[in-house]
Structure prediction request, 240 residues.
Amino acid sequence: MMRCFILLVFFYITGVANAHGGTPVKVPDTMAERVKACIICHGAEDKVGRDAYYPRIAGKPQGYLFNQLRDFRDARRYYQPMATLLENMTDEYLLEIAQYFSALQLPYPAPEQIHMQPEEIKLAERLIYSGKPEKDIPACSACHGDILMGVEPAIPGLLGLSRAYITAQLGGWRNGGIMRGQAANCMSEIAQQLTDEEANAIAKWLASQSVSGKPSPFNVLSSELAHRCSQTILENGGEK
Prediction:
């Protein structure tokens, strides 16, 4: 994976040079130019086949993006290409990148066409909007907002993501936080309480929903959840 990533960057750079006959090109010093290495994976277009594991970052809350960048740089999340890109960047520069992508408004892909049995839909909607109190699982909407578009400044939305990506993230949390960061957090604790059937139903339902609206303000969180996830939301700056 790392070798492929380096080759992609190399081919992009050499391609630009070759397109101009090897003559040095004056590139404008803008954030849009600086983050072109990011959009090799996190591009504006939808991924072919909807099976890519690269999440959408355009329009995500600034605090969430900043803290994910910082966690990759500081090895609190595990993905070597991201760590390599960010290893020499300051907090101030990471914040600039986060500001750029949070303000970037791009069209969302159409919802995935996923067949679900009526009982799967009922299960997913119960977990997403009511939770499972007997297992101390809060509703997804309690943290991610009533319309599931996230909560400022650091909780991401759940819509507009592929089923493959959502499944992978839930799997990472449920299997000891692989690639999800060193420190335990409330999302990991919650995901580990889900059964395979519940996790699959949630991923299928979310990926099949249309996207609308914007992140909610922080004050929509209940005091109980704000306290429960305070380390994750406030200190680490968002769910991993």
